[in-house]
């Protein structure tokens, strides 16, 4: 389906700063407290990120290149050999991009949330900050979310219409019971189902569980790609979504996608 791609970095240079900030917030989270409590942030003068990180321009769907267009532009290079079962059937629907997911003007973005759905660090914190207080109010009505499941809200001040909140597995905890893969697969499947049921035609995934939840990037990318392909192959579901975007922030996650796309 998808071929190895050459690296196209859209936020070169900011990844390390974000990584450091993510780790700091994650340390806080591991002590069972949301690191960037939304309300706390609202009343604080402290800026969560250096200002240049928030300066990525909003990207419309037209500006997010599909694998097909990246091949045409020679930004992508076909792999030397294709993996068994690979096909180009979905190259018009699949995108891999490295940018701030809160700047994507798509129908739905997928948040890597925690079971409380009340905000946290990493991409969760970024989404809540960009969406504004009303997102938290709606999340408070949802009664949390189980790991592997997903819930949907409006996007409020975000450029996207909807936010799908899914709770990925904590890698080291779920791996002990052999549940990590099936739970991560479930996050992708439930998010795709919810987006399609709510009339979304485009969806952008953050790299679920690869931050504070500790999932190794390559294993996560393999699971994500495999589950999305399986979903598209099932019962004509491919017609329900025009674009599925893997939105990475860290170079390591982007590299993993490039390595795993056959
Ligand atoms: N845009 C796109 N991706 C981002 C952004 C952004 N603005 N910020 C971070 N990432 P994490 P998890 C990437 O830790 O591992 C939260 O506190 C980041 O580089 O956000 O599923 C929740 O409340 C990484 O690749 O989510 C939970 O408690 C990816 O997003 C917990 O973290 C996911 O990293 C969930 O942990």
Describe the structure in your own words:
The chain is α/β, with parallel strands linked by helices and 262 residues long. 36% of the residues lie in helices and 13% in strands. Strands 2-8-7-4-6-5 form a six-stranded mixed β-sheet, sandwiched between helices. Strands 1-3 form a two-stranded parallel ribbon. α7 packs across α8. The longest helix is centred in the last third of the chain and has 18 residues, at 180-197. The radius of gyration is 17 Å and the shape is globular. The N and C termini lie close together (7 Å). The relative contact order is 0.18. Mean pLDDT is 80; it is low at 1-53. Ligand AR6 is lined by residues 22, 26, 29, 35, 100-102, 112-114, 120-124, 126, 168, 206-213, 247, 249-250, 253.
Summarize the structure.
This protein has 262 residues and is of the alpha/beta class.
List the helices and strands and how they pair.
Blueprint: H1 15-30, H2 38-42, E1 59-60, H3 67-72, E2 94-98, E3 104-105, E4 108-112, H4 122-131, H5 133-140, E5 150-154, E6 162-166, H6 171-175, H7 180-197, E7 202-205, H8 217-233, E8 243-248, H9 251-260
Parallel strand pairs: 1-3, 2-8, 4-6, 4-7, 7-8
Antiparallel strand pairs: 5-6
The protein binds ligand AR6.
Ligand AR6 binds at residues 22, 26, 29, 35, 100-102, 112-114, 120-124, 126, 168, 206-213, 247, 249-250, 253.
């Amino acid at each position: 389906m998808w071929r190895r791609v050459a690296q196209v970095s859209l936020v070169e240079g900011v990844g390390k700063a974000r990584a450091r900030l993510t780790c700091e917030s994650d340390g806080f989270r591991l002590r069972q407290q949301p690191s960037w409590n939304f309300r706390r942030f609202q009343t604080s003068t402290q800026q969560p990120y250096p200002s240049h990180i928030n300066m990525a321009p909003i990207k419309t769907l037209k500006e997010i290149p599909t694998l097909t267009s990246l091949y045409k532009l020679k930004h992508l290079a076909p792999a030397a050999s294709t993996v068994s079962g690979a096909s180009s059937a979905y190259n018009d629907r699949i995108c891999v991009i490295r940018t701030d997911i809160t700047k994507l003007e798509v129908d739905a973005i997928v948040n890597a949330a925690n079971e409380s759905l009340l905000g946290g660090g990493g991409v969760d914190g970024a989404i809540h900050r960009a969406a504004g207080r009303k997102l938290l109010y709606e999340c408070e009505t949802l009664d949390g979310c189980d790991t592997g499941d997903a819930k949907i809200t409006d996007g409020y001040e975000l450029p996207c219409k909807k936010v799908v909140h899914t709770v990925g597995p904590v890698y080291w905890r779920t791996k002990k019971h052999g549940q990590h893969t099936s739970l991560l697969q479930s996050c992708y499947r439930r998010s795709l189902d919810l987006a399609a049921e709510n009339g979304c035609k485009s969806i952008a995934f953050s790299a679920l569980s690869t931050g504070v939840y500790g999932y190794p990037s390559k294993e996560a990318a393999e699971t994500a790609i495999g589950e999305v392909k399986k979903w598209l192959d099932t019962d004509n579901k491919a017609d329900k979504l025009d674009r599925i975007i893997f939105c990475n922030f860290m170079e390591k996650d982007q590299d993993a996608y490039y390595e795993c796309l056959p």
